[in-house]
Amino acid sequence: MDRQGCQGLLFLCVANSARSQMAEGLARKRFGDRLRVQSAGSRPSRVNPYAIEVMREVGVDLTTHASKAAETIDPSTVDTVVTLCAEEVCPVFLGKARRLHWPIEDPASEDPSLSRDEMLERFRSARDQIQGHIEALASRLED
Prior knowledge:
Elements: E1 8-13, H1 19-31, E2 36-41, H2 49-56, E3 80-83, E4 98-101, H3 116-142
Parallel strand pairs: 1-2, 1-3, 3-4
Helix pairs in contact: 1-3, 2-3
């Protein structure tokens, strides 16, 4: 995959609230204006407050982000789609884009027994896994 092979990058997950939002923020920070970076989901909700918090720790502001539906993304702006779903069914993006799959467990949980610190740790783990994938992708793009 060369630089010409990736002009528009789309991250997809279910709610577009955590994994894909964190990936969008990290990719924008890493690639700047060199790539058009977007995120969306099959059932958009809202950006998760824990995602906002753990991204702030690495200098990425998600407070202006909003969850978006995959259908609202113009396929002509995307040539690489990254799905981030692990155990759930990933959204489908119609178009001729290259497909990558990074199975990251959803850090969001409705489990009331999880403490705030445990939730933050789950989100940090997902963020750090996504960061590793983005760095690997960047290495391939820069070769």
